[in-house]
Design goal:
This protein is of the alpha+beta class and about 240 residues long. Helices cover about 15% and strands about 30% of the residues. The strands form 3 sheets. Strands 4-11-6-9 form a 4-stranded antiparallel β-sheet, with no helix packed on it. A 4-stranded antiparallel β-sheet has the order 5-10-7-8, with no helix packed on it. Strands 1-2-3 form a 3-stranded parallel β-sheet, with helices on one face. The radius of gyration is 21 Å and the shape is elongated. One of its GO terms (cellular component) is cytoplasm. This is CRAL-TRIO domain-containing protein. InterPro entries: CRAL-TRIO_dom, CRAL-TRIO_dom_sf, GOLD_dom, GOLD_dom_sf, SEC14/CRAL-TRIO_domain.
């Protein structure tokens, strides 16, 4: 922008569009990611950061903000401008229409690209034929965590999680029924919206996440998922 207008760069602007943010995002993984994103300007651009705009902020975000703002210093918090609308007059005045992204009402075409999971990773795409299943295996250390996000392209899917101690899970030929039920197999109706959950302080062992389409006689499912697991760490706790 500065080069295009042959003018000095006066400051950086961060914009967070929370359109679609809902109760399903109220989990440790998502809050941790938001805290990291908000702190980028503070840690990387402490002098040049001019404003942080939060657009389409729903009422329930106020509770999340109470946690997120704990990682920001007072100087950065004063730069945050929040609105429940899709645009703010100050942002419109600061950014010319030809460099404002089109999804914010500007004229600059932007290809957002792949849908990104809340942990920062891209989703894995899987085609599940009718009367078939898909399994994802995750190794979790003692006291560790397991998180998942998934959605389907306009279709439902059954989902369940099973625990196997030590090496009792050999491979995908091992029936999940021989494991301990962590999340009972049930149909997810969140068509197109993410199903998100993070389990913490888990027993060490193997966890099998089952996506079940055996109940569909003719309809295949297009699944997108992201699985995260590992040892618990201090940065999983967001300051209040």
């Amino acid at each position: 922008g500065a080069a295009r207008y042959n003018a000095p760069l006066k400051g950086a602007i961060l914009v967070f569009d929370l359109k679609g943010f809902g109760a399903r995002h109220l989990n440790t993984t998502c809050i941790r990611l938001l805290a990291q994103l908000f702190s980028i300007g503070q840690s990387k651009y402490p002098e040049s950061l001019s404003r942080i705009f939060v657009l389409n902020a729903p009422t329930l975000f106020s509770g999340v903000w109470n946690s997120v703002k704990g990682v920001l210093n007072e100087r950065t918090r004063k730069k945050v401008v929040m609105t429940n609308k899709g645009m703010h007059d100050e942002l419109k005045a600061l950014v010319p229409p030809d460099i404002m992204p089109d999804f914010l009402g500007g004229k600059c075409p932007c290809n957002i690209g792949e849908r990104i999971a809340s942990g920062g990773s891209t989703f894995t795409a899987v085609h599940i034929p009718a009367r078939n299943t898909h399994k994802v295996v995750a190794k979790v250390p003692q006291g560790g965590y397991l998180g998942w996000e998934f959605f389907t392209e306009g279709k439902d899917i059954k989902f369940g999680v099973y625990y196997f101690q030590n090496d009792s899970y050999i491979d995908n030929s091992t029936p999940v029924s021989s494991g301990e039920v962590v999340r009972e197999l049930s149909k997810s109706e969140n068509k197109g919206d993410c199903v998100t959950e993070t389990l913490t302080d888990l027993r060490g062992g193997t966890y099998v996440l089952l996506f079940d389409n055996t109940y569909s006689m003719m309809t295949s499912k297009e699944l997108r998922y992201c699985i995260d697991s590992g040892a618990a760490s201090e940065d999983m706790t967001i300051p209040g």
